[in-house]
Structure formats: C-alpha cells, structure tokens
Amino acid sequence: MSGSEGLSIHDRPNSYIGRSVPRPNLPRLLKGRGSYADDVKLPRMLHAAFLRSPYAHAEIVSIKTDEAEKVTGVFRVFTGDDIAKVCSPWVGVLTHLEGLRSPPQHALAVGRVLWQGEPLAAVVAESRALAEDVLELIEVDYKELPPAVDMEKALDGDAEVIHDVYENNLCWERNVNQGDVDAAFAASEVVIEEEYRFGRHTGVTLESRSIVADFDAGEDMLTLYHSTQAPHMKQALFAKHLDLDEHKIRIICRDVGGAFGLKAHAYGDEFATAAMSMVLKRPVKFVADRMESFLGDIHARDHIVKGKIGVSKEGKILGLEIDDLTGIGPYSVYPRSSAIEINQVLNLTGGAYVFENYRARGRVVFQNKPPMCQYRAVGHPIAISVAESLVELAASAIDMESMQMRQLNMAADDDYPNKTVTGIPLENLSHQESTTKLMEMVNYQEIRNEQAELRSNGIYRGVGFGALIEVTNPSPAFYGVGGAPISAQDGCSIKLDAKGNLIVGTSVTEQGQGAEAVISQVVATAVGITPEKIKVISGDTENTPYGGGTWASRGTGIAGEAAVKAGKVIRNNILDVAGILLQSEPETLDIRNNQIVDDENGTERMSVAEIGRIVYYRGDTLPKDFQAEMMVVQHYLPKSFPFAFTNSVHCSHLEVDVTTGFIKLLKHWVVEDCGTVVNPQNVDDQVRGGVVQGIGGALYEECIYNDQGQLLNGNLADYLVPMAVELPEIIVGHVESRTFESDLGAKGAGEAGTAGAPAAIMNALNDALRPLEAKLTRQPFTPQRVLEALGKV
Amino acid sequence: MKPSPFDYVKPASLGEALSLLSDSDGEVAVLAGGQSLMPTLNMRLSSPSLLIDINGITELDGIEVVEDVIRIGALTRHQVVQSSADIAQHAPLIAMAMPHIAHPAIRNRGTFGGSIALADPAAELPACLCALGATIEIAGNKGRRTVSAVDFFKDLYETDLADDELLTAVEIPVLADGYRSAFEELARRHGDYAMTGLAAHGLIDGDKVSDLRLAFFAVGGTPVLAKNAAAVAEGKNIGDEMISAVQSALEKDLDPFDDLNCSAAVKMLYAKELTSRALKALIR
Ligand SMILES: Cc1cc2nc3c(=O)[nH]c(=O)nc-3n(C[C@H](O)[C@H](O)[C@H](O)COP(=O)(O)OP(=O)(O)OC[C@H]3O[C@@H](n4cnc5c(N)ncnc54)[C@H](O)[C@@H]3O)c2cc1C
Question: By C-alpha distance, which of A572, A618, A567, A620 is closest to A596?
C-alpha cells in the first residue's frame, strides 16, 4: 500500500492526464511503417475476388464455373452453395428489440441476390488481378425480379415483398408514448410540424475492409489478420459460423485506417475468405477495392422523419412527436442489427431537454439496397437535427432567441442524476455551462449585427445551433442483453520487464484515433513510469485481455479505467518489493519518473529497473514467503448507468450564395463535455474529424440510386466527401463533468462532432434564408436543393 | 480494381509510336499522364490489348512561342502550363483555368494533350481552346494535319482524332492587343469537374466588347460556343441591361442536360450567372 493509495488518479504527481502527449504510434505511421492487413504477405498466400450481383433483385437460375476453374493459376471457384457447406448463415437480430426480424443471411448469396453488389461467388487465384480476370468467366444466369427500392413504398400493399416468409417488408417497429402529447399540443402557444429527410451515405474509410485468413491445418487454427474494431467479437462470430472453438481463432488487428463503425459488422466476403482458407488450407487475402466498398460496406442514415413540437408562450417545450421511417436493405446486419439507429433516434430526440409528453414511432423496412448499420454517431445526427430544427423554428415562431429557449428547457447543471423523457438515466451533464461557454466563444451579438448589415447588401449569412446528448461507454444494455457476443467490459494487462519498462495489453483497438496514446498516458500516470518506457499492445486476441474493442465512444472511458485499475495494482506490487528492499512501509513510498521515492518529500530511493532486476534475477534475496507479481490484469465494466451520456453544443456560421445555391461554411464551434479530457489534442481532433463527417452528411455525401436500385455514384469522383478546401475553421472548447462511475471519470468523445454538426448547419442555413422565406430540411443540402427552396428552379 | 491484362510498349519517337498505332489490330490505348486512362482501365470500363506509352517522346513536351502563336506540346504537364510565364503572358485564359483542373498531384502527371484528347464535356481546357480559336495539331502515318478546336470536339468523349493518330500539340494565337479573357466555373468542391463553366474572350475597348467568344462547358457533349449571345453582345457596352439581353440569348444557344449534381435548369441558371460574372470581369 503506497501513500497515494486511496487517492484518485487525478491526484497523482507527475500526471499525464490532461496533457497532449504525442501518440506513441505516430513515428511508425509517419515513417510508412504502419502495419495494415494488406501489408501482410504470407508464404503460399492466395487472393480472392468476389463476383457481385449487377442487379438489385434477381434469382440465380444457374452458375457455371467450369471455364473459370480451368484457368492456370486459379485454385478454386466458390459459389454460395460451396461456402454454405462450411459457413453457417447468421441472423442479425437482438432479442431485446422486441419483434425485430430478419431471415438467415449467407456469406455468399444462395438462390437469390438481394442488392446490387451482394457477393455470390468467389475466385481464389495466385494474384488478385488474375482472380478479377477470371470473374469474367463465371457464367451466371439471372432472372431479374422487381426490386423494392423506395422505402416509402416498401409497406404499400402492392410492394414487392422481399422475403416471402414475411407478410410484408417490415423489419421492426417501435412505439413510445409518454405523457399526453395531444393534450400538450392543444395547450401549446405554437405547434410546428416539419418533415426531414436524411440521405443514405456510407463510411468511406481510407483503408478499405481487409482480411488475410490463414488456416493452419496442423493446429486446426485460423489466424485472421483483419481490419476491425472489435477483435473479440469477430473471434466469437467466426468461431460460431465456421464451427471452430474460439481459442482456435486468433484475430490480429494492428493498424486500422479508419473504421467509423463500418468495421464492426459481419460481412459475407470476409467470412467467405476465412471459409475458403479453411477449405484450401492456405492463406487467402481479400482487400475490398473502392468500388466494392461503395457496394459492400454498410450504408447509414436514410431516414424520413416527421416531427412536431408544441411550446408555450414562454418557450417551454410541452410536447414532441416524431415518426421515423428508415430503409435498411434486405437484411438486418449481424450481429448489432439494423434497428439500433432508429432505436437511438427514438431514445435521443429532444434528449437535451426536460419535457414530459413524447410520442414516437419508428419503422424499419427491408429494401433492395445494401444493408445499413451502425456508422459514427449512430442515430444522433437524425435525432439532433430533427429536435434542434424544431426548437429553432418554434423559437422563431414565438420570437425568442433559440439559445434562450434551449437554456430554458435544459436541466440545471446541479439537477443530476436525471432522466430523459423515455426514462434513460443521465448521470452528470453540463448543458448550461456548455451553452454559456459556447455563446462566449461565438461572439453571437457581433455575428447578428454583421448579418443584418450584410443582408442589406444581398449577402445572406446564417448562424445556427445544435445541442445534444450523446451515448458513450455503453453497458451490456446496448448489445449484450440482446444476445450478441459483444463485450461491454474491457481489460488491461501490465507486465514489468527486467529493465523497468511496462508492456501493456489493452482490449481496445487503435484505428487512428489515438487509443494507444490514451492507455499509455493513463498507465504512465497510474504507475509513475514515463511514457517512453511503456509499450502498448492492442488488436490481438491472443495477447490482450478480453474486451469489447473500439466503438460507441467507449475506449477511453472503459479501457482507460481498466488501465487505471491495472496501473494501481502493479504500482502496489512494485512498492511491496521496494518496501522489503528499502525496509520501509510500502505506504510511505511512491513511484515517480521511474524511481521509487519517499511519498512525503519525493526523495529518490531506488529505480524501478532495479526492482525488475532483483525480482527476475535475484529473487533469492527476497523473503521466502514472498512472491512478487510483476504481471497483472484488471477489467472494468460500467454498472451503475446503462450509458455515460455526454453533452455538447455546436454552432455553425455560414454564407449562402442565393444566386448559385452554394453554401460556404465560415466557422464552426463546438463545446463538448466528455468528462475527463485525457489528451486534449486527441479529443479536439476527434471532435474536428467528427464535425467533418457531419459536414459530409449535411452538405455532400449521398448514395444516389435509380429506381432499379442501381448506385449511380459509387466512386470517389462522384460520391462527394468534404475536402480540406471546403472546411471551415473548427474551434473546440471543453467543459469537464466527470462520470462518478469510474476513477478516471472519462466519457466518450469520438462521436460528438458527427452527432451535432448537421443540426447546426441546417439551422444556420435556414437562419440565413429566413428573410427569403426559404427552408431546407432534406440533407444533404446541395446547391440544387437550395435553389429549389429559393424557388429559382 | 485491377485492369485486364494488356501489352505495353514505350516508343522513343513519334514515328515509332505512329507505326505501332497503325500496325496493331485490336484495341489500343495511348498512355499520357494516365490520370484519366488508368482509372478507366482499373474499373474495367475499357480493356485495351495494347498500351502505347508516349511519355518517352520528348518532342511532344514543352511550351514555345513562335511568332504569333504559343505552342503547347501534347505531353506538357498541367503543372508546367500552370507555372509558365509565357502562358500567363500570351494565353492568360489558360492560366486562369489551370487551378480549377483537379488537384496538384493530378496536375503533376496529367498532360495538356491528354485533357484535349479525352474531351471530357466538363473539362476546362477544351472550352478554353474553343474560346481562343486554337488549332489542334495531329500526326498520323500520312503526315501532320491541323484542325480548329471548334471542329475537333465532336461529341461526348468523341473527337476528330482517328484511331491511328496522335495529338501532338496545340497552337493558340498569342493575346492580341485589346483582347481580354475571363474564366468562371462552379464545381461542388474545389478541383472537381465543373457543374457549369465558362471561358470568355473578347476585344475590350473601354466598356465596349466585340468579337466575344463565350465557350461553355459541362452543358453539352462538347464545349458550346454561345453564338446568339455573342451576337447580342457585339459592339455593346457591358452593363446590366446588356447582360440580361445576353443572358436571354443563351436560351437559344444552350440545351443542357441533368447530371448527378444538378438539373438542366440549374445549369441554365448557372450559365447565365457565369455570363454576368465573366462579362463584368472582362471590363474590370
Ligand atoms: C480526381 C481527378 C480530378 C480531375 N479533375 C479534372 C478537372 O477538374 N478538369 C479536367 O479537365 N480534368 C480533370 N481531371 C483529368 C485530368 O486533367 C487528366 O489528367 C486529363 O484529363 C487527361 O490527361 P492525361 O495526361 O492524364 O491522359 P491519360 O489519362 O493518359 O489519357 C486520357 C485519354 O486521352 C488519350 N490521349 C492522351 N494523350 C493523347 C495524345 N497525345 N494523343 C492521342 N490520345 C491521347 C488516351 O489514350 C486516353 O484515352 C481529373 C482527374 C482526376 C483523377
């Protein structure tokens, strides 16, 4: 027991918490020495290419592979039936989402193809180029079937029913009814109704989905070098569907070039790659190319929401109602399901405010488009855009400053714990302080003055806000209770080596967001070792503790706390040895800067390296009844709250060219509260990167489909992602309201930017156009749509 | 995203390249900067059996002022054109257009001749050449010939180039006394192909414009010279009333189509707006 025991990690001397410590992995990445799945080259490795359906809906009458199989260099051609013999189908439902249904989905299509791009056969050859050549020799006889493309028509009586085991295309419906919404609307001073549309878009990771499957027939062992966010979940899924024991599967996931949620799902091409490696008993590589990414990665959003708000004369929100419809493709995605996004929309709409009457309906429908699933800030941009637009429209109708109306409807910062209208507990939020801080940063009055002045010159600038709560650090309530093999807990192992260095294993993964940096900072602080003496290992199911991985803004909050706990244990273990050697009470000692010191005055007594040496080489000098433990592991699971909610607030300032419909973003501000900020630069960059993705959804990104379910812009020239020139300066401010669940007190920060930016942009746009009586509610806000709203075309 | 197999040759001279072109049967593709060709090969939108790499033919590279024309070799990289003092002085319209063409990495490889030969309807340079009355020089086994830019562009990605010919150079008359240029483009993001664009060139005397050439791009299969609009503008002072008359005349000149980014109606609106901007810029 050291003198610092019992104190919080925040009281540690020489703390690295709250400092922008450079990421330990940066030099490696900057020197081009990153190790992505595609960098893996194994002896005897083969390459897979997939034949993908050209149709959105068709029967596979026959597949002929003999010509393809004759080609020299081709090892085997697999059809859906071949893969089905070694890989069982899956069903993407969660049992806690009552009524959610989806039929079994095969890795490669069997009998029918249900979206353009669905894989139905694969060639394994000595090179990817050859495999692609040979795809052209596979003869498929398709019988085209009418596609169900338009989600608004999916539930019509005459709609093509995609799965004949069901009576219609409904996948899931949820209804919420709190209080008396009709009475609330009747009592309201103003009631505003509006319809909102959100384009279907996708994740666009720089590194595409990748897997190298290496089945070792000698050990009956499948090693998967895989770009993923959830190694242990993937281990469980591959084990289940390939009928292997979990310890016979090892997932190695070193560097990941962006994931944004899309690498946390089961993909047929990836499962087929693993299955083919098992059949061929050779390593097989599959790296999705960009065209496959557009057709094969999950898509996201695609909602139509009708919203209604009623407010009193004074600006109190009396009632809120939403009706959300979303099209999710032909299957609910495994294992997280495609119902979580709409579930979040229902849970979060208006979540920043205290009100009592809420009614919501969410309907999820099947359609012949790529499957849709969790992407950064799941559901949030929709919920927040709808609520925040309604709030600004209502504020304008009663002639009140929208921020004033927000603050009026937000709980006081000392009024926590609290609950949302649907009963979800909120532990500790700071809406009032955050909004106040934002307004100071924005210099609101000056912007308003300038706006008025410029309007008289025909220049239309607008300012808009978006306030939000965000789900982070989920407990098993998110997925585990629904039966998915998704861990909500994380672990951290720490080993002291003989030279006083720490080898740290974490169960979260590094996907470019700086997880390894955060774990290293926390361990450095908790133990008293400097960061350069700490090595963090992540992304290896054989060498790291079991845990959930990186998603839902959980890495720092959950794995960080496991690191705090493991750090404390090994510090105590080291000090126990030091106490013996120095003939001092361990409580009177501490570790600072790699030295054992007197806790009281910091006098150096001996080095930690010396402890390592003695423990490992001269254990004979320690007491007979004492065993030093220099490797420890600790885990952490949040238990008191289902989620650690955070809050943030955005402001967008923009200018609309009313002759061309072009929108120029001038500036964007965010104040976010993720509790303890472990690494300010990392948090700022997470927020900025998130804002950029939010800008993508609001202004640029949309998968454009024709009525036959064909994607018209499946390449990076036609699918527009925001680029540096179009981006405004993004200013980030922080308020720190720690979660009391953990010692570290960190909540998540990874999604706040994406969650709130679209709302703020929509509001700023409509603020700019208010004098022209134009209003836009359909994202992305393209120049075409702006001109239509202005009545110019 | 790997191309179908193809053979590859890199001739060292124009003559060698031309005989390779005429001798080979099957589909042949000429490789210049590769910025447009390589993606089409990788996406298997085309599968030529032979690639003739012309990057070794040094005589196709470079910018030269010869008497009253400025000559740009087909292989001259966009980046070289962009930073050329001769271009800035003698063909300022080209200099104005260059920053709108893609991004620096693409301009480092992409060639002037490649842009012209490709004839993308939304590309900047074909329209500039039409506005400037440039001449395209073409070499074939029977010798060299020239064709005016306006006649060179036939249709969507279709030009006057025969399968066995190479584009060797472009000749642009050097800027004559009193002439000015303006360049305007609207693209979703900086560096994207245009939603609508305009290259304008004319003789300016005070506020008066004559011999005006308005070459629009991304509104048809080829660059479109707005002749009715130019006729309305002829000899008039550039001002609000004149601009709206010119804008109205555009309805007779342009027949745009919808694309992924916007509708034909938006393109017409943009064409009018860009006309106004360009005319004002001409007298600024
Ligand atoms: C992301 C991106 C954005 C772009 N944006 C723009 C833009 O905004 N505006 C724009 O104008 N361009 C744009 N481009 C295209 C770029 O300018 C190309 O470089 C150019 O169009 C073609 O030039 P190249 O030298 O690369 O030709 P290549 O790709 O090598 O060839 C293109 C075609 O021309 C033929 N060809 C080339 N040279 C000759 C010759 N001398 N004789 C006969 N045939 C020949 C080839 O056979 C081929 O069919 C963009 C490209 C990319 C990748």
Answer: A572
